[in-house]
TrEMBL record:
Keywords: DNA-binding, Transcription, Transcription regulation. InterPro entries: AraC-bd, Homeodomain-like_sf, HTH-like, HTH_AraC, Tscrpt_reg_AraC-type_HTH. It comes from Catenibacillus scindens. This is AraC-like DNA-binding protein. Transmembrane segments: none annotated. Residues 177-275 form the HTH araC/xylS-type domain. The keyword Transcription applies. It holds the Pfam family AraC_binding. One of its GO terms (molecular function) is sequence-specific DNA binding.
Amino acid sequence: MEKNATVTFKDSYKNQSRSSAALSVYNTGRQQCPPNYQWGPGIRDHYLMHYVISGRGYYTVNDSTFSLSSGDLFLAFPGVPITYKAHGRHPWEYCWVGFNGSDALPALLAAGFSKDHLIINNLSCGPKFQSVLTQIYECRGGDFSHTLEMTGKLYSALALLVKSAPVKGHPESTYVQKAVEYIHGHYAYGISVEEIADYTGISRSQLYRVFLQETGQSPKEYLTNFRMNLACRLLKTTFLPVGTIAASTGFENSLYFSKAFHKIYGQSPSMYRRSPKKE
């Protein structure tokens, strides 16, 4: 049946093999919403971008509601409460991609996003961006080749956003980008927040403030989560001993790593390794 503005439909795909890789597609699709269709209030455990193809709708985040229409893009950060709702008379059609990984935040910051800047009105590369999101959906599949192809298209979509971003971003985003860059390059060593702040050229208190403002988490939380995501990947994809994984991801010793892991995931690294992959 031909899809048009008067017929509601939803084409969606959920990746059943989420990984803690540098970048992973979690879900993707396209939907023509019925009038007043609403998702939320709720939170996502990953980044989620919607591009509005036609129609109108509303996005509520950070206690503010925005009216959006064709050509606009809105982003959800993990853990941030959101609601989005279709217009009553002119409901929107949108395409989307959900994703996560260590490359996600640096790319989004470079594109001009932050926890407080989650919308791009009249996206200049809109038609190209929509085309690439469509290609992500067309590449869907459960085997490794499909996963690689979806990830490649996602990198292309993010590259379009970075290219179309204003030349001069917020100074705060620049500091956060430098901090993330340092973390990604030195996470395996015993780095401190002070060292990260020195690299960015601002004080520890300033770094804490701008990092929290831009990402919703502190530098220490980001460093810990980054290390843990890599550790989870190693636990699931290698046979390395827990002590070796702890040392490889920057933890002082295997005992400290195991305690920190249990605090976050509610189980030991060994139990996590033996558990089935999350569907």
